[in-house]
């Protein structure tokens, strides 16, 4: 792989925003990864409305906030294509 192709490949990897979701205690939780220098967002929904959001360094930190604040188990998170 050429140097320029490698740079394009790496930039494309960073531009892919991955999402994770969990449903727990009648609430929906979504994690959206942003660029690495920004971090990841945890959104908390109740009855279809966003009631809280958190900016963390990474998705693991978002999961930890969800666990500590709302009791969301670490093992119920799923990768998601949609919101």
Annotation keywords:
2 helices, alpha+beta, five-stranded antiparallel sheet, elongated, 83 residues
Q: How would you characterize this protein structure?
A:
With 83 residues, the protein is α+β, with helices and mostly antiparallel strands. It has one domain. The chain has helices at residues 3-15, 59-70; strands at 19-24, 27-33, 40-46, 49-56, 78-80. It has a five-stranded antiparallel beta sheet with strand order 4-3-2-1-5, covered by helices on one side. β3 and β4 form a beta hairpin. It is elongated, with a radius of gyration of 15 Å. The model has no long low-confidence stretch (mean pLDDT 87).
Produce a short descriptive summary.
With 83 residues, this protein is an alpha+beta fold. The protein has helices spanning 3-15, 59-70, and strands at 19-24, 27-33, 40-46, 49-56, 78-80.
Please bin the fraction of helical residues.
Answer: 25-40%
Secondary-structure class: alpha+beta
| Strands, count | 5
Gyration radius, rounded = 15 Å
Q: What share of the residues does DSSP label as strand, in percent?
A: 35-45%
Biggest sheet overview = 5 strands, antiparallel
Mean pLDDT: 87
Number of helices: 2
N to C succession of SSEs: HEEEEHE
Tell me the number of structural domains. 1
From the N-terminal CA to the C-terminal CA, the straight-line distance is 35 Å
Shape: elongated
Can you tell me the residue ranges where pLDDT is under 50 for at least 5 consecutive residues?
none
Strand order of the largest sheet: 4-3-2-1-5
């Amino acid at each position: 792989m050429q140097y320029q192709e490698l740079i394009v490949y790496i930039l494309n990897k960073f531009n892919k925003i991955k999402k994770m979701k969990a449903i727990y205690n009648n609430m929906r939780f979504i994690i959206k990864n942003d660029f690495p220098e920004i971090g990841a967002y945890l959104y908390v929904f109740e009855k279809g409305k966003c009631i809280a959001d958190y900016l963390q360094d990474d998705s693991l930190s978002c999961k930890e906030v969800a666990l500590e604040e709302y009791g969301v188990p670490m093992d119920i998170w799923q990768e998601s294509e949609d919101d």
